[in-house]
């Protein structure tokens, strides 16, 4: 492809250097609010990907032997650099991803919290001991790094999700090969520069770019021992299968259909505000977005007010003052969201709010869809099987179901294949307790619409939303990026060196 030199190119980061790719294949990076090309990203060549993996392999020996205190110091400096540059990182996110500046700062901040937690590595990586398991014999374990690890990140959180990956992997003593989403690479590149400034040695983090070939490379390269993935179900299943077949550990966070259950006794004001924010924030492009509301009993009478509040959100480019909802990532994403809305209408859903014809002055070419609400989803058989309910829409669309009882709501959710997140809105503790115990979802909010756990816990999506057996960050994340070495040692008491001094005259030849 031929390009004018006015469009900046994204570099590769190999062995501590930001290098221009030799590839002949480039992908455009678009500003979702205008669809202007704001940069281009290379599909790294096989040689470049090999160079990045080899750099990780070479750096592993010395990095894994580096004192844990030295690794901790690097990440203490790193979290400060991220904090100091949060606005600059947010600007790049808004340019390439489209979310509002305030939301982009939140994206960076949630990633920063994981880096701050990684600074506790001296406590997190402790082994265990048991002395005197039999006479003169002790057993103890070490948590040790596993080798070269790799991360494959999605477009929707350009800062947070890469920061779930390489800081945790690296602080444990592993080296890291990162592949950011080819749609939003800028933030990861700036994060890499900051990590270098914090003192990370060359080769401890390498970054490649691309699509399928880069993913296959990561799944197949023998030096890579573990893969972290966040993204769609199709890609997640594929990476889990292919990586596992090659003997790698894989943790794969995938799609979702998260339900918010509204009880008639809930705090109405708070609940409606929470629903609107959780359904339409980030234009619905969050795997933890509340994309389905279940109104139980009389709470269904609140629907008209929910629609009114949703109407008042301002759709605009993410860097414009007062913007609530930014654009979707691409024209294809917009077309898909609009077709899923239409499929709901065709299958008999009631369009309570239609955001498809939203016009944003000055941004006529942007990928905008306004807040949309679909009701009347449950058919005669009391089972929601419309396509707009079954599929993850990943846009600012709220699907509304109605249930007669809490038990019916729980049953609906447990029949859904996904288990990423859910929330219940109620002022009754017994109702909340019943819900949290009976609903088969890995992350539950009680009056909290997007219950993403803080980093001292782990991200515990379940069922169809996760593949693997060890989750992201927290204790689980440390387990994922380390292996256990167990030592059983015997030192016989009678072999102990004699310690009493010899005070008699030494004699020879007696």
From TrEMBL:
Belongs to the aldehyde dehydrogenase family. The gene is ALDH6A1. One of its GO terms (molecular function) is methylmalonate-semialdehyde dehydrogenase (acylating, NAD) activity. This is Methylmalonate-semialdehyde/malonate-semialdehyde dehydrogenase [acylating], mitochondrial. It comes from Lates calcarifer. SUPFAM superfamilies: ALDH-like. The keyword Nucleus does not apply. Malonate and methylmalonate semialdehyde dehydrogenase involved in the catabolism of valine, thymine, and compounds catabolized by way of beta-alanine, including uracil and cytidine. InterPro entries: Ald_DH/histidinol_DH, Ald_DH_C, Ald_DH_CS_CYS, Ald_DH_N, Aldehyde_DH_dom, MeMal-semiAld_DH. It catalyses: (S)-2-methyl-3-oxopropanoate + NAD(+) + CoA + H2O = propanoyl-CoA + hydrogencarbonate + NADH + H(+); 2-methyl-3-oxopropanoate + NAD(+) + CoA + H2O = propanoyl-CoA + hydrogencarbonate + NADH + H(+); (R)-2-methyl-3-oxopropanoate + NAD(+) + CoA + H2O = propanoyl-CoA + hydrogencarbonate + NADH + H(+); 3-oxopropanoate + NAD(+) + CoA + H2O = hydrogencarbonate + acetyl-CoA + NADH + H(+). Residues 18-487 form the Aldehyde dehydrogenase domain. Keywords: NAD, Oxidoreductase.
């Amino acid at each position: 492809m031929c390009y004018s030199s006015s469009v900046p190119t994204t570099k590769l980061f190999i062995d501590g250097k930001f290098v221009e790719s030799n590839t002949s294949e480039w992908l455009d990076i678009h500003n979702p609010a205008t669809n202007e090309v704001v940069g281009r990203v290379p599909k790294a060549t096989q040689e470049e990907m090999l160079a990045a993996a080899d750099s990780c392999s070479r750096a592993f020996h010395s990095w894994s032997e580096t004192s844990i205190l030295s690794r901790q110091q690097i990440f203490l400096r790193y979290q400060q650099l991220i904090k100091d540059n949060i606005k600059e990182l947010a600007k790049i996110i808004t340019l390439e991803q489209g979310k509002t500046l305030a939301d982009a700062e939140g994206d960076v901040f949630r990633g920063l919290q994981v880096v701050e937690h990684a600074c506790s590595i001296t406590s997190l990586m402790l082994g265990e001991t048991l002395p005197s398991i039999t006479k003169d014999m002790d057993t103890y374990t070490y948590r040790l790094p596993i080798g070269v690890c790799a991360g494959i990140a999605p477009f929707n959180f350009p800062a947070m999700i890469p920061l779930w990956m390489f800081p945790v992997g690296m602080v444990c003593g592993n080296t890291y090969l990162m592949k950011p989403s080819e749609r939003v690479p800028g933030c990861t590149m700036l994060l890499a520069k900051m990590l270098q400034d914090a003192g990370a040695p060359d080769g401890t983090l390498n970054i490649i770019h691309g699509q399928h070939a880069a993913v296959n490379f990561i799944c197949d390269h023998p030096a890579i021992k573990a893969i972290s993935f966040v993204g769609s179900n199709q890609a997640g299943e594929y990476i889990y299968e292919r990586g596992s077949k090659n003997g790698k550990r894989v943790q794969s966070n995938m799609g979702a259909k998260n339900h918010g259950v509204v009880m008639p006794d809930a705090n109405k004001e708070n609940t409606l505000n929470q629903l609107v924010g959780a359904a339409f924030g980030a234009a619905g492009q969050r795997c933890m977005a509340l994309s389905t509301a279940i109104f139980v009993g009389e709470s269904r009478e609140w629907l008209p007010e929910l629609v009114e509040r949703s109407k008042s959100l301002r759709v605009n480019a993410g860097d414009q003052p007062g913007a609530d909802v930014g654009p979707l990532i691409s024209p294809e994403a917009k077309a898909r969201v609009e077709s899923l809305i239409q499929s709901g209408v065709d299958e008999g859903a009631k369009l309570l709010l239609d955001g498809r014809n939203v016009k944003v002055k000055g941004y006529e070419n942007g990928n905008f869809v306004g807040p949309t609400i679909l009701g009347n989803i449950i058919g005669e058989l009391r089972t929601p099987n419309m396509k707009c309910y079954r599929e993850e829409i990943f846009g600012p669309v709220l699907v509304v179901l109605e249930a007669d009882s809490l038990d019916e709501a729980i049953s609906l959710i447990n029949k859904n294949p996904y288990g990423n997140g859910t929330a219940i809105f109620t002022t009754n503790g017994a109702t909340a307790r019943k819900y949290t115990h009976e609903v088969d979802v890995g992350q539950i909010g009680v009056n909290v619409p997007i219950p993403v756990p803080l980093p001292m816990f782990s991200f515990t999506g379940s069922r169809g939303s996760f593949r693997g057996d060890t989750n992201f960050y927290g204790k689980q994340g440390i387990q994922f990026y380390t292996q256990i070495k167990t030592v059983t040692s015997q030192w016989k008491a009678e072999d102990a060196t004699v310690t009493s001094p010899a005070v008699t005259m030494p004699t020879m030849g007696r």
